[in-house]
């Protein structure tokens, strides 16, 4: 049926992401501008929300920025252009064409945020090409956002307890779980420390942190362990950072 095909397709997609994950560049946190990283990650988060972009585009944009900053010494003024170019590339890669932010919208956003920045097509195109060359024209870079929906399939089961009581509606509780998992997912964007974990582990930790926060037991199920390939012990360091 449709659900089986959808789940099967998601499994194949996630397996592909796992393979790509092994080839991701190593993040060293060496950027001279690393103290400004949180500001620019937040800027991209706000801008992507303003443009109604999907989580995968948002997370890819921040990841591109992180790796680029890690490799190059970029001035603060350049970082604004780099950040927006990262968002444009990510949206072109993850979204439909009509969802890609237009130059006028980007400049209006910059004006509203008092960024003292006027973007031009020429400057953005030049920066996009520089970014693409830096990543060897490969934007197939999985982020936690590429895994989260797959893991949410098993986020709640009929045998789970909530505050010691049986769950009356798995469907309703899955909706709650989805909300909190995505909140933790977005929170993970704000700190570069999460780049020390694999993206798939961060996504699994978002589900685990949500189960802990919602006082569900057990905190991690056999089904989740089989689906994510992570045991509870693997996730604890990342979950503690999320809940800390």
Q: What is the end-to-end distance?
A: 42 Å
CATH top level class name of the largest domain: Mainly Alpha
Please name the fourth-level CATH homologous superfamily of the largest domain.
Cyclin-like
Q: Please provide the ordered H/E string of secondary-structure elements.
A: HHHHHHHEEHHEHH
Share in helix:
55-70%
Structural class: mainly alpha
Using only C-alpha atoms, the radius of gyration works out to: 19 Å
Mean pLDDT: 90
Strands, count: 3
The largest sheet is: 3 strands, antiparallel
Q: Which residues sit in consecutive blocks of at least 5 with pLDDT less than 50?
A: 1-8
Biggest sheet strand line-up: 2-1-3
The name of the CATH topology of the largest domain is Cyclin A, domain 1
| Count, helices | 11
CATH architecture of the largest domain: Orthogonal Bundle
Sheet-strand content, in percent, reads under 5%
Overall, the morphology is elongated
Domain Cyclin C-terminal: 142-244
Domain Cyclin-like: 42-133, 150-244
Protein name: Cyclin-J-like protein
Pfam family, one: Cyclin_C
